[in-house]
Amino acid sequence: MQETVKFISKGAAYVSVTAQERALNVTFVLLPKFTMLAFAAALEPLRMANQLTGQVLFRWQVLSDDGQPVACSNGVPIVVDGPWASAQPEGIVFVISGVEPEGKASQALGDWLRGLWRRGRIVGGLCTGAYALAAAGILKGRKFTLHWDNIPAFAELHPDMEPARQVFCIDDRVMTCAGGVAAADLMLKLIADRHGAALGQEVMNMCLLTQKRDEADQQTTSMAARLGTRHEKLLQAAAFLEARIEEDFDLDACAAHLALSRRQIERLFAAHLGITPVRYMNDLRLARGRALLAETDMKVTEVAVACGFASASHFSKSFRKKYGLSPHRFSHFGTVA
After folding, report:
1. What's the whole-model pTM score?
2. Is the dihedral of CA 291, 216, 43, 172 positive or negative?
């Protein structure tokens, strides 16, 4: 009775399923400044699956480093069930992180996760939880993901790993998702795989989700949607430049690659985007630099080099002009005036 009260809430909608498997235990480990949206989007579909069927299909517990409440990225504290160090969870263990993920996952947590994985558990990372899985040493050679805003910083810190830009990934008992509502996409797959498509669809309806996203779907809109144009040559030029942020700007190489003249490319950018190719590349580099300053402990000089700037002074001047404060101040205070 106590379990029913904890894990099954009342609701009008009902789906009949035959629970052929034992209830799945799901453990969430919350790290400081974790993303509340990712946590809620992961937990609520499990609750709804129980509610819709009137059965305990899923059980869950929430843990932290010390067993004390954890403040998420918006400052709201979440009460947990205890510390992870004293737990030996069954089923799936998800680490949820969020903003400023570097250093949030201790080596002790990494060792704990690796031990669980070696004993046959499924381990996962939601939002930037991949940082914890990297500390556990179980991501190399596997397909994984994290939130797109954090991928540049992660790639700088872990050059031997390449995150996929998918909404979620499942590879050899390692589950990762990009956070936000992508956590719901991952859980909907889990629900449908275990208990059928009908239950998965009804949970979608309860969440007011109108489109099912699969593992291979991209996190963000296409470049065509982002730039507001379908001009093939412009999209090819933009992709060519974006792939070479760290390299010297070479519009002639881009022109040769597309079999166009330098002037033709400049006209395309002016006509469709209202800026020059140089400005487009500079904005890309500054956005990359801002991400690295926000999510890593890299020095301004190191960030400038990683973003393709000729000097730290050039980077600092451009950064201040675009964002209204110096990169040094941004990296120390993390807020824009």
Report:
1. 0.81
2. negative
